């Protein structure tokens, strides 16, 4: 992929605060046009500091940022009309209605969508006459998203977009983000919901203490972690009877097998159970989830620090 196909490019980014704390320590990554890219990490990992550099809210202390081929800080006037930003908290006037807030924001946005269209996109059309202070936390997040979409952005930054949403609202937002991606919008999101990243992201990066420790597709990140097989042995069947090649860990009758070859190991286990006339209770076999991979990475990095 050539450099002009990347709409976000970060090279050797560093950001240090006045206290001397280095929040971002020389990271590099790229986001392709029409891609959903998730930036993950524990609290304090440097996600928000990184996103602020990409949005042009501040200049990096070292390194290079390009959004749509331009410096988002020094060429902000050219970049800002082409991007949409959804912050963790909007902070809108509480006495304005949803429609009034949207119209006010549209007045500051080049080529803004009609108010009704923006609110319909996020499921707030029927709440347009309600004052902002009367909205639930989830509805305020929907309003934040509507305002980020007003200018039909080419690049959309979403900082914790579904915080406070119920399950239905979260799924609706996912569908909207996918539709935006399919329409050509590039999306960079941060989220603490690992299921969200696993479901939405084409690629992702995991940060820890200001560094990117792994990157790739969700499948690539999880593939490096072992799958697991769990079950309960019947009374009177000792764990020692299991094939040694399965390397099972036992806690009483509960057994867990970790393997990088799930199909092979599961087949071997089921064949043993059939030949031994053993019924495996509560049998559960699954590949590693992004959550398991994330926790494993965080624990490994912390232990090695």
TrEMBL record:
Q: List, alphabetically, the SUPFAM superfamilies matched.
A: P-loop containing nucleoside triphosphate hydrolases (SSF52540)
Main localization, broad class: membrane
Listed GO cellular component terms? plasma membrane
GO molecular function annotation? ATP binding; ATP hydrolysis activity
Q: Where in the cell is it found?
A: Cell membrane
Q: Which InterPro entries match?
A: AAA+_ATPase, ABC_transporter-like_ATP-bd, ABC_transporter-like_CS, ABC_transporter_ATP-binding, P-loop_NTPase
Q: Which SMART domains match?
A: AAA
Domain ABC transporter, which positions? 8-234
Stated membrane topology is:
Peripheral membrane protein
Give the domain of life.
Bacteria
**Which Gene Ontology terms describe the biological processes this protein takes part in?**
response to antibiotic
User: Which keywords label this protein?
Assistant: Antibiotic resistance, ATP-binding, Nucleotide-binding, Transport
CDD domains per UniProt: ABC_DR_subfamily_A
Protein name, per record: Multidrug ABC transporter ATP-binding protein
What organism does the UniProt record list as the source? Streptomyces lunaelactis
């Amino acid at each position: 992929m050539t450099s002009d196909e990347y709409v976000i490019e970060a090279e050797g980014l560093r950001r240090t605060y006045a206290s001397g704390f280095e929040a971002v320590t020389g990271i590099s990554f790229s986001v392709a046009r029409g891609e959903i890219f998730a930036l993950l990490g524990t609290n304090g990992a440097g996600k928000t500091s990184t996103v602020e550099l990409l949005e042009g809210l501040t200049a990096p202390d070292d390194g290079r940022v390009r959004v749509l081929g331009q410096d988002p800080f020094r060429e902000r006037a050219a970049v800002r009309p082409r991007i949409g930003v959804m912050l963790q908290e909007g902070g809108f006037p509480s006495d304005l209605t949803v429609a009034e807030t949207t119209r006010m924001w549209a007045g500051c946005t080049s080529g803004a969508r009609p108010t009704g269209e923006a609110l319909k996109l996020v499921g707030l059309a029927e709440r347009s006459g309600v004052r902002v202070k009367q909205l639930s936390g989830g509805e305020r997040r929907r309003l934040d998203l509507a305002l980020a979409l007003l200018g039909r952005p080419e690049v959309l930054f979403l900082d914790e977009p579904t915080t406070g949403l119920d399950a239905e609202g979260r799924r609706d937002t996912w569908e909207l983000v996918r539709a935006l991606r399919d329409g050509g919008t590039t999306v960079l999101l941060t989220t603490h919901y690992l299921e969200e990243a696993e479901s939405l992201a084409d690629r992702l990066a995991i940060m820890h203490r200001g560094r990117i420790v792994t990157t790739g597709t969700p499948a690539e990140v999880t593939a490096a972690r072992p799958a697991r097989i769990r079950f309960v042995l019947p009374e009177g069947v000792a764990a020692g009877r299991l094939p040694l090649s399965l390397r099972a860990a036992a806690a009483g009758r509960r057994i867990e097998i970790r393997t990088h070859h799930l199909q092979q190991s599961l087949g071997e286990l089921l064949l043993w159970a059939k030949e031994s006339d053993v019924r495996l209770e509560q049998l559960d076999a699954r590949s590693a989830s992004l959550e398991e991979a994330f926790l494993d990475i965080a624990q490994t990095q912390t232990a090695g620090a």
